[in-house]
Design brief:
Protein name: Ppx/GppA phosphatase N-terminal domain-containing protein
Helix content: 40-55%
CATH topology of the largest domain: Nucleotidyltransferase, domain 5
Distance between the termini: 15 Å
Radius of gyration: 18 Å
CATH superfamily of the largest domain: Exopolyphosphatase. Domain 2
InterPro entries: ATPase_NBD, GppA/Ppx_hydrolase, Ppx_GppA_N
CATH architecture of the largest domain: 2-Layer Sandwich
Structural class: alpha/beta
Strand content: 15-25%
Largest sheet: 6 strands, mixed
Order of helices and strands: EEEHHEHHEHEEEHHEHHEHHHEH
Organism: Cloacibacillus porcorum
């Protein structure tokens, strides 16, 4: 049986299609995303713009239609930070429904963190041993999970992401290095106050900003999850890229090898969040995960006892 999951984020919409095989293994048939910036400009009045809702709803409906054409018998569709907080989130959900799209369920921050972390714990070597700190930074929020021996001890969400941070601090490019430093310092305090602390034996980063920076570090002409998943990023490499993004215009960032042109305008915000998370955790490097909540939702839908 084939099933699909659509994940509606603040910055992008993701589709994953999979099926159960013998021996309790899930085969991923397709895993794609499109950047729609649903949360763009939301910080100004707390509402989703008509343009952002229209293009995101169109992407959701197209993904659902494509999943059905590929034989998906069930489609699970979830929304995260933008739909948790927007005053008119209900209007977007109704727009998707009226266009023939799937029913959208909005995840709580705790649900999002737990799903993302379980996908990571099940796929990164060594993550089931010792104490691990996982963070998944998206467009509108950053989820943190502390786990020990494969068991989740605490999961929490901090309402800051690459899209919202860009709207607030980095609307123009290039950026003043002093501003970048002050933003990182403020975020470090914010994460520490939320409960991020040193002590974990391993820190794992997930989400599009983390994998984008890993792709640039690897110099990839085309994104390859098999290269990125399980790779490591040092604090020095992330600092190097942060300085690079700060001094570049958006147009110059679009020419950087390994970076998707559609992520060029928010990558500086994403890099600042990653550095601040590492600083709050006292981490010198992170292990990169390409797995996220959509992988865990797919696993849950297909079986309660399978692995991807």
């Amino acid at each position: 049986m084939k099933k699909a999951v659509i994940d509606i984020g603040t910055n992008s919409v993701k589709l994953i299609i999979g099926e159960s095989l013998q021996e309790d293994i899930i085969k991923i048939i397709l895993d794609v995303n499109v950047i729609t910036k649903l949360g763009e400009g939301m910080r100004e009045d707390g509402r989703l713009s008509e343009a952002a809702m229209a293009r995101t709803a169109q992407a959701v409906v197209k993904f659902a239609d494509f999943a059905r054409s590929q034989g998906a018998e069930e489609i699970v569709c979830v929304g995260t930070m933008a739909l948790r907080t927007a005053e008119n989130a209900g209007d977007f959900i109704e727009t998707v429904r009226a266009a023939g799209g799937p029913e959208v369920r909005v995840l709580s921050g705790e649900e999002e963190a737990a799903l993302s972390s379980r996908a990571v714990l099940n796929s990164i070597d060594g993550a089931l041993r010792g104490e691990v700190l996982i963070f998944d930074t998206g467009g509108g929020s950053t989820e943190f999970v502390r786990a020990a021996g494969g068991e989740i001890e605490r999961a929490f969400s901090v309402p800051v992401g690459a899209v919202t941070l860009t709207d607030e601090k980095f609307k123009s490019s290039p950026s003043d290095p002093r501003l970048v430093c002050s933003v990182i310092a403020a975020l470090t305090r914010k994460f520490s106050e939320a409960g991020v602390s040193p002590g974990a034996a391993m820190m794992i980063g997930a989400g599009g900003n983390v994998t984008a920076i890993a792709s640039v570090a690897a110099g990839l002409d085309r994104y390859d999850p098999n290269v990125i998943h399980g790779s490591a990023l040092t604090r020095e490499e992330i600092m190097r890229q942060t300085a690079l993004y700060a001094k570049c215009t958006d147009e110059e960032r679009r020419e950087i090898k390994g970076l998707s042109p559609k992520r060029a305008d928010i990558i500086l915000g994403g890099a600042c969040i990653i550095l601040a998370a590492m600083e709050a955790a006292g981490a010198k490097e992170i292990v990169v995960s390409d797995r996220s909540l959509r992988h865990e939702l797919l696993r849950k839908e297909l079986s309660t006892d399978t692995k991807i």
